[in-house]
Design brief:
Layout (H helix, E strand, L loop, with lengths): L1 H4 L8 H32 L15 E8 L2 E9 L4 E10 L2 E14 L3 E18 L2 E19 H4 L12 E13 L4 E14 L1
Antiparallel strand pairs: 1-2, 1-8, 2-3, 3-4, 4-5, 5-6, 6-7, 7-8
């Protein structure tokens, strides 16, 4: 547990630290459980021919929008290889400012879609009004889950070669996130969505 508590900011009291530590332990347990459940799908996915994959070619960039609390805002993606995509999200909407990163692992690839698992980590700043004054606080946040990525070019393809539609990809995912502020603690299941144009 020392490793988990090392991630907790020093300004939290003992009760808050234990609560966040439990959330992080639950997140780790869910991630391991998800990995064990998806192991059979991974071996099947390795039999899928690379030519049929909906995931991007290595080195390909994408830009778009990602919404998956607590990571939401303008987004950039980079295909590290055929299975791994790195994503950065910068959001400054409303009272919450975010700077976060996501890592996606595509464990099952098909012609028109891809199934993936993801992890996210970042820094969130919450600004609010208190007794006539402006206050703010900053907290780290962690999350993880799984989702599906749709290749709209292949889904809407009428010509058979995928060239009649721009290279738009959307994601839909379900995950667990945890972030803790002094005045607002959040953790739970969330649904996320995003859309990106790939170059």
């Amino acid at each position: 547990m020392r490793t988990i508590f090392a991630l907790i900011p020093s300004h939290l009291d003992c009760t808050q630290a234990r609560g966040l530590g439990r959330k992080l332990a639950l997140l780790l347990s869910l991630s391991v459980g998800l990995g064990l459940l998806l192991a059979p799908a991974t071996s099947e996915a390795q039999q899928t021919p690379p030519a049929a994959a909906a995931t991007p070619d290595p080195g390909r960039f994408g830009v778009g929008f990602q919404s998956s609390w607590p990571a939401y805002g303008l987004s950039g993606t980079y295909a590290v290889n055929e299975r791994v995509t790195a994503q950065g999200v910068v959001g400054a909407f409303g009272s919450l400012t975010t700077l976060s990163g996501r890592g996606l692992y595509h464990f099952q690839k098909q012609e028109k879609y891809s199934l993936y698992g993801f992890g996210t980590a970042g820094i969130w700043r919450h600004s609010f009004q208190f007794l006539g004054g402006s206050e703010s606080e900053t907290s780290p946040g962690l999350g993880g889950g799984a989702g599906i990525e749709l290749d709209w070019r292949r889904l809407l393809d009428t010509g058979g070669d995928g060239s009649g539609f721009p290279p738009l990809f959307s994601t839909i995912d379900l995950g667990f996130v945890a972030a803790s502020f002094d005045n607002y603690n959040f953790s739970g299941l969330v649904i996320g969505a995003g859309i990106h144009y790939r170059f």
